[in-house]
Amino acid sequence: MHTQPLLLRKDQERRLLAGHCWIYSNEIDTKATPLKTFEPGQPVEILSQSERWIGHGYANPHSLICARIVSRERAHPLSPALWLQRLHEALALRERLYTAPFYRLVFGESDGLPGLIVDRYGDRLAVQITTAGMERARAEILAALEQVLRPQAIVLRNDTSVRELEGLEPGVEHVLGEPSGDWILTEQGLEFAIDPMRGQKTGWFFDQAENRARLARYGVGERVLDVCSYVGAWGLRAAALGASDVTCVDASADALERLQSNAERNGLSARVRPLQGDAFEVLRQLRDQGRRFDTVLLDPPAFIKRRKDEKDGTAAYQRLNRLGLELLEPGGLLVTSSCSFHMGRDGFQRVVQQAGQRAGRRLQLLETGQQGPDHPVHPAIQETAYLKTLFLRALPAA
């Protein structure tokens, strides 16, 4: 089958030849290859102005990122064979890294499958398709996942707002196996139950697993505050490390209910106390009550989702970190994260330092973490390096 060519404007191929795989609509020679002639998700061959062959990909005329490169080998167009090859490569990395099958199996562009996320919970898979190109190949992708992994269940978690940018309908559906309640995963000897149909993202945040494991070397003390706790990944880790009083704050009553049942599952419920409410309001209340903690864990959702949110989002990060630092005992540990791509590592570090100044604290940065290696960074695509986690000691300003 002949794949339609997509021609770039003059001198627009440099970023692609350096390894990036996104093509913006203003980089296309729309006279030679009018975008309106392409269907959403249609396979294309990307060519430079001089008709140098660059790669196989797919197009979406309705999206700002109007095409994505999937293969740079002319002999390997988009096909079931290519999906199988990519999945085998992704699985080989994770099996090299992990002894138990709980991880992100496919991380989009970094695994050569832009628009596809797959999280593995043992013999169950949560799949998220975010682009029209992957939506078009959905049946082939699901067949390839079944062939490579023989899963008992697959849930499609297509309830992300990113799909709207591609003109796709959001939704959640079971595409393999029967809906059978909770899924169980293990992390660092703890067991967690998640709801694959309703939890945040795909039910769990595998990207922080390495950073949660790092907590052990620092000693968390007796009293720990876990802010934006979700179902207890950080808070229960702190309790398992010996903290006797862990306060877990989240806006979601459902998440805190699940956190409590996860605490019971691990014999930690006597050490863990849920507190429902807005993070900023709860932190202010705790400060006004004179509460103090040995460790404060801050793992909020992204405050900067688009570049236009930068000013407000930066202010929110500074406010949250200042409140967290005001609740720390002298010499206490602050573990703070940002998953906003638009806030770089240096910018985040600066914001936390400013929060320290305002809180009257002198900070020592002990370690910086990023997403785990099951979320590999594509060296040519900065957008794939999104998670920053800072481990800091907070001392009195004097």
TrEMBL record:
GO terms, molecular function: methyltransferase activity; RNA binding
Keywords, ordered alphabetically: Cytoplasm, Methyltransferase, rRNA processing, S-adenosyl-L-methionine, Transferase
The RlmI-like PUA domain, residue ranges: 8-72
Pfam families according to UniProt: Methyltrans_SAM, PUA_3
Domain of life per record: Bacteria
Subcellular location: Cytoplasm
GO biological process: methylation; rRNA processing
InterPro entries recorded: PUA-like_sf (IPR015947), PUA_sf (IPR036974), RlmI-like_PUA (IPR041532), SAM-dep_methyl-trfase (IPR019614), SAM-dependent_MTases_sf (IPR029063)
One GO cellular component term: cytoplasm
Domain (S-adenosylmethionine-dependent methyltransferase): residue spans on this chain: 172-392
Similarity comment text for this entry: Belongs to the methyltransferase superfamily. RlmI family.
PANTHER family: RIBOSOMAL RNA LARGE SUBUNIT METHYLTRANSFERASE, S-ADENOSYLMETHIONINE-DEPENDENT METHYLTRANSFERASE DOMAIN-CONTAINING PROTEIN
Protein name per its UniProtKB record: Uncharacterized protein
Native organism: Allochromatium vinosum (strain ATCC 17899 / DSM 180 / NBRC 103801 / NCIMB 10441 / D) (Chromatium vinosum)
